Amino acid sequence: MIRSVRCTEPRSCELAWASDVSQPGVYFTYEAMPGRVVFGVGAARTRIAEELDRLGARRLLLLAGEREESRARDITREVADRVAGVFSGVRPHVPIEVADQACARAASAGADALLSVGGGSTTGTAKAVALTTGLPVVAVPTTYAGSEMTPVWGLTAGGRKTTGTDRAVLPRVVIYDPELTASLPPGLSAVSGLNAMAHCVEAFWAPGRNPISSLLGEAAIRALKTALPLVVADGADIGARSDALYGAYLAGSAFAVAGSGLHHKICHVLGGAFDLPHAETHAVVLPYVLAFNAAS
């Protein structure tokens, strides 16, 4: 049995169970997101050089928030000779002036690739640079944000956040290393995990939903439901950290193909207008949007 989408016409669909998508009334469009994913404990330290070689990257702009910069330098020690510049002025919701500063830093460094190490704000800053410059992004996530799997970009100016989609910002390579999430405190682990859950909710109700996004969302929910209580109870449980990060990867993949729905529209407006923390905003809004959608 698979989750399918029963439609009378494109974009006019409702979720339905179907054992055979060839039966009458089933209609969907699925467009896969390109990109390469490397997943494994220790992958950040052992695979970065190989993945950069695949891209032919020789001059990197390393993007990391101030708190992540030391760790970012540590895991890129093997490729330190390729780091032509560092940008640590990351801020939530990617203010346009921050994006401009990061672009200027990439230009002054003569960067031919962007390497982001951090959460959604860091990935978002790298995407903003890629949107303007076309430089390829290699993303190394340290939270469960999921932004690294999507072609969605966001910029904030004058208290208003604007978002869009462009495959130019989709990271060419994403390296998932559960060890990098082990230091997340319990509270941040929980809200970041609920941010991932929000991607699953969008996969079921967003206008572009389809059987593939639904399957990915279901698998993500199962992984996150099991793993999140464990990582909150014991952040050093690397098995649970792996499961949570895997769930976040699936959730981001589901969101990438289904697109943004009510939940993310609300959270982006609130976050940009009032400079609210991204993960916490998603965690607070999620049950209300879920209840609203479930009623329909």
Fold topology:
Elements lengths: L1 E8 L2 E7 L17 E4 L3 H13 L4 E4 L5 H7 L7 E5 L8 H14 L3 E6 L1 H14 L3 E5 L10 E6 L2 E6 L7 E4 L9 H20 L5 H23 L4 H21 L3 H13 L3 H18 L1
Parallel strand pairs: 3-10, 4-5, 4-6, 6-7, 7-10
Antiparallel strand pairs: 1-2, 8-9
Low-confidence regions: 1-20
N-to-C span: 23 Å
pLDDT averaged residue by residue:
89
How many structural domains? 2
Q: Tell me the strand percentage band.
A: 15-25%
If classified by CATH, what would the architecture of the largest domain be?
A: 3-Layer(aba) Sandwich
| Number of beta strands | 10
Shape: globular
CATH class categorisation of the largest domain: Alpha Beta
Helical fraction equals 40-55%
Count of helical stretches = 9
Order of secondary-structure elements = EEEHEHEHEHEEEEHHHHH
User: Major β-sheet, in short?
Assistant: 6 strands, parallel
Strand order of the largest sheet: 3-10-7-6-4-5
CATH topology of the largest domain: Rossmann fold
Oligomer: single chain
Structural class: alpha/beta
Radius of gyration, rounded? 19 Å
Describe the 3D structure:
This protein is an alpha/beta fold. The protein folds into two domains: 146 residues, Rossmann fold (3-Layer(aba) Sandwich), CATH 3.40.50.1970; 110 residues, Dehydroquinate synthase-like - alpha domain (Dehydroquinate synthase-like, alpha domain). Helix content is 48%, strand content 19%. A hairpin with a 2-residue loop joins strand 8 and strand 9. Helix 5 packs parallel to helix 9, helix 6 runs antiparallel to helix 7 and helix 8 packs antiparallel against helix 9. It is globular and about 55 Å long.
